[in-house]
């Protein structure tokens, strides 16, 4: 968990009131699976969170944001792949991935069900495509 906390501090996520981080999981929460395409890999099962907090989290309201697609192989519809953040000391001023991601998450925040979203196209998402509760 130390690496996750260090990365979040480096990105100024933990001490920023604009982010509402409920919890963080590290590699200890991952499980090992034998995938037909990728072989034996570790992955992040959202079912762990859904099982522990069913009153708050489900497939309808959860997204894994990760730079490795295999980390959400068990829940591909809930996975959103972003570009990796590398060499922070060089790229901090030019990296805009989180800004774009913030825009997308604000656009979808009031949706009741994320199942219909295609997170592969998150950068092209437009408000007029947004579902409503009519």
From TrEMBL:
Annotated ranges, domain FCP1 homology: 41-114
InterPro entries: FCP1_dom (IPR004274), HAD-like_sf (IPR036412), HAD_sf (IPR023214), UBLCP1 (IPR051658)
Pfam family, one: NIF
An example Gene Ontology molecular-function term: protein serine/threonine phosphatase activity
GO biological process terms on file: regulation of proteasome assembly
An example Gene Ontology CC term for this record: nucleus
Protein name, as recorded: Ubiquitin-like domain-containing CTD phosphatase 1
Native organism: Paramuricea clavata (Red gorgonian)
